[in-house]
Amino acid sequence: MKYIKSQMQQLIKENKELHTRFKELKAEHGLEKNNALKALYHSEVADGGKFQVAYQALDQPKPKK
Q: Which domain of life is it from (predicted)?
């Protein structure tokens, strides 16, 4: 699985828990947005993290209507 900034932004936008965690990471550690996104990816998404399935679902093509 590969880190993709736009997918992480979308996941955070769609998930209130991740959005809150993102803001906490920035504040607690004084991280800039890009670094906080990567930190959140590695702690909550990568390697079987809680949000891995949701992240991978963003990579699937959208069904046509």
A: Bacteria
